[in-house]
Amino acid sequence: MAEFKQDMPPPGGYRPISFKRVPAKGLFNGYTLFGAYIGITAGAYYLYVLNFKAVHHRELESKGASLAIYPLLLAERDRAYLKQLRRNREEERELMKNVPGWKVGTWYGEPIYKLAKPDTLIEPGTFDYLAHVKYRDFKKRTEMDINT
Question: Is the entire prediction scored with pTM above 0.85?
Fold first, then answer.
């Protein structure tokens, strides 16, 4: 039988166990961190101000362009409105040409609108204005369904 050998400590014993807390060495001290915070904040604020000025300038230019073109857009809208009224009148003239006694813009000779001042434009309602357009276009322009 083989001889049994006990595992024993080294001669003189083990060295002492170090159990004291050894804090990690910090890369920066408090003053350095505070100074870095102030520096980064100042740089970010400077970039913010530059960006704010650029955005304000773009908005100002866009608003100016919008105000400059607004009268032209109003004139085009009014022009399209009058063209549609004229198309409505011509369509009525074409549809009712075989009806005896029919005058365009009246109901068998009687004016539809009683005007206080002559030559005053009475704006028609939505259904009258869009009376002669296709149903698909009517629905698109009014976003409503007249059959429901």
Answer: no
